[in-house]
Specification:
By secondary structure, the protein is α+β, with helices and mostly antiparallel strands. Helices cover 38% and strands 19% of the residues. The N and C termini lie far apart (65 Å).
């Protein structure tokens, strides 16, 4: 016998009360919607719908406002993109295109990798930056492992991209790695000048 919920609010209370102790633990649903199947009244289709609703909520909460904020620090990027990237199981590499005012005009996912690596090439990064007339870019990817450390490959590709940007007169302002609840900024560490 399946339980009939009086309202969506009742269902949310049931999910958070029985399965999770706090809202951040809901990220388990994002990775595996099957954790919901133990709740009366939730089948496979409902579990997928709840997972989709959670993803929509995350995107809504992290979508930049219509009036784009000026990016002045890595924390500005983390506020927008941290919730979207920190719980993913595979690396994703993005280039954030910026105008002269320091506002993100567009984001481009350049590659989606396996659990611990992704491949990027300068032509993919700068093709979109040139096409969309970006004056600068911020590179960004996630570490699904949560390890707050730049790999040797991260440093090599960043150096190549900084050099390519100089030739094209498109400044690489930062390379930010989202590592779980933390991040690593090449600009803060002075690694863009190496």
């Amino acid at each position: 016998m399946q339980y009939e919920y009086a309202s969506t609010v009742d269902l949310v209370r049931e999910i958070t009360g029985r399965c999770f102790h706090d809202l951040p633990s809901l990220r388990d649903i994002r990775r595996n919607p099957d954790v919901l199947l133990g709740i009366d009244g939730i089948g496979a289709v409902s579990a997928k719908r709840i997972q989709a609703a959670l993803e929509l909520g995350i995107r809504y909460a992290t979508e930049p406002a219509t009036e784009q904020p000026v990016i002045t620090s890595p924390e500005d990027i983390i506020l927008i993109y941290g919730p979207r990237l920190r719980d993913l199981e595979h690396e994703r590499f993005y280039v954030l295109l910026m105008n002269n005012a320091g506002v993100i005009t567009d984001e481009v996912m350049v590659s989606k990798g396996i659990q611990n690596s992704t491949l990027v090439h300068p032509r993919e990064i700068f093709r979109e930056a040139i096409r969309r007339s970006a004056s600068s870019v911020i590179l960004m990817h996630n570490h699904p492992s949560g390890i707050r450390e730049a790999s040797h490959e991260d440093k090599i590709i960043t150096k190549q991209l900084v050099e390519a940007g100089r030739l094209l007169d498109i400044q690489v302002k930062d390379h930010i790695i989202i590592c779980g609840q933390s991040y690593l900024s090449f600009a803060e560490n002075g690694w863009l000048e190496e």
